[in-house]
Amino acid sequence: MRIYITHSLRKGDEEMSYKYVAIEREYGSGGTAIGKQLSEATGIPCYGYEILQSVSEKMELPVTDIQQYEESNTNSFLHSIYVFSKINSDLETDFLSNENYIFLEEQKLVKEYAMGGPAIFVGRCAANALEKSNVLKVYIHADVEKRKNRAIHEYGINEKMAGNIVAKFDRKRKNFYEANTGKKWNDWSNYDIILDSGNLGIETCVKMIQAVM
User: Fold this and answer.
1) Residues 52, 81, 119, 155, CA torsion sign
2) How confident is the model at residue 143 (pLDDT cuts 50, 70, 90)?
3) Stretch 55-76: mean pLDDT, rounded?
4) For position 88, what pLDDT does the model report?
5) How far apart are CA 79 and CA 147, in angstroms?
6) Alpha-carbon span 184 to 22, nearest angstrom
7) Model's pTM, two decimal places?
8) Is 26 buried (19+), middle (13-18) or exposed (0-12) by CB count in 10 A?
9) 164-173: long-range contacts (C-beta < 8 A, 24 or more apart)?
10) pLDDT tens-digit profile of 171-185?
């Protein structure tokens, strides 16, 4: 059983209360299911795929195209563009690549959803957009064989392709996170809680995050 708490979750003698939860997850670790079940248990809205859909509608591009742009996004300069855009609100976006623009739009949506009150975010580098807010940063991982098994039996992935699919999406998420934040995706010092969903199970992970919130 692996449970890591990398930062103090107490402030003085009083427990901290988090307004937002930002979940990053390995493919097949059940991070999306954890976010949704946490939402059901707390009544707090959860956003993940919804952000993709909103960007898709705004750019008038299919979600699959948005995902392909994300996959090809390995430009480490993007983070500097984002920081600059926060300083200069009049920044022209015409010169940005589609990959750059998609990320900026996703970050704006995370902030917009956050303005509505407490929220749970799955992926999309949400903690980056909420870095100055009261956000609990969670990383969900699991043994690769258990993730392959979930991909086969829950996601409907072909058994022969499961290993390649897991590796592909892990690489995609790693590249997207690192290009957009300037941080290492699997550097556990970037998170407050690291949970092994393969050993703990989805429901236990949900209960543990809820207990910290």
Assistant:
1) positive
2) very high
3) 71
4) 47
5) 30
6) 16
7) 0.83
8) buried
9) 165/27, 166/27, 166/28, 169/27, 169/28, 170/26, 170/27, 172/70, 172/71, 173/24, 173/25, 173/26, 173/27, 173/123
10) 988 988 887 788 899
What distance, in Å, lies between the first and last C-alpha atoms of the chain?
21
Q: Is the pLDDT at 84 greater than 60, yes or no?
A: no
Task: Find all residues with CB under 8 Å of 145, minimum gap 6, and list them.
Answer: none
Can you name the residues that pair with 156 across neighbouring β-strands?
A: none
For residue 146 the two structure tokens come to 């258990």
Question: DSSP secondary-structure letter at 43?
Answer: -
User: Position 170: which residue type?
Assistant: D
Contact 131, 22 (CB under 8 A): no
State residue 60's pLDDT score: 79
Quick one: tokens of 86? Answer: 């926060």
